[in-house]
Design goal:
The chain is mainly beta and 98 residues long. The chain has one domain (17-87). The protein is 0% helix and 41% strand. It has no helices and 6 strands. It has strands at residues 17-21, 33-44, 50-62, 65-66, 74-78, 90-92. Strands 1, 2, 3, 4, 5 and 6 form a 6-stranded antiparallel beta sheet that branches. The radius of gyration is 13 Å and the shape is globular. The termini are far apart.
């Protein structure tokens, strides 16, 4: 089996904060994304063994509306998706405000 590097694999480190879009941004709809600090990387059995970033979420915006964060919410972000992948789906964040 060939060992290939996934689109976002190795681009971000544990402790960094990233923004991951739920959908490709478009002029005809408000953005949907989450922001969080990378706690670890690994694989997710729930995602079929995909390589992922495990995040402590600091923001979750759905259709331009921030959702209320309750406690220590976490999220799992795949390092690559097979459908609707785009170059800026995950990006490093230095500062985020809603």
């Amino acid at each position: 089996m060939e060992n290939t590097t996934l689109k976002f694999e190795g681009q971000f480190k544990v402790g960094e904060t990233i923004k991951a879009y739920h959908f490709h941004p478009s002029m005809d709809r408000a953005e949907s994304y989450l922001v969080g600090e990378i706690l670890s990387t690994g694989t997710s059995e729930e995602m079929g063994g995909a390589k992922v970033f495990n995040l402590k979420m600091t923001a979750n915006v759905i259709h331009g509306i921030p959702t209320e964060m309750v406690g220590d919410e976490t999220a799992t972000v795949p390092m690559e998706i097979g459908f609707m992948e785009f170059d800026s789906r995950i990006e490093k964040v230095l500062f985020h405000s809603i």
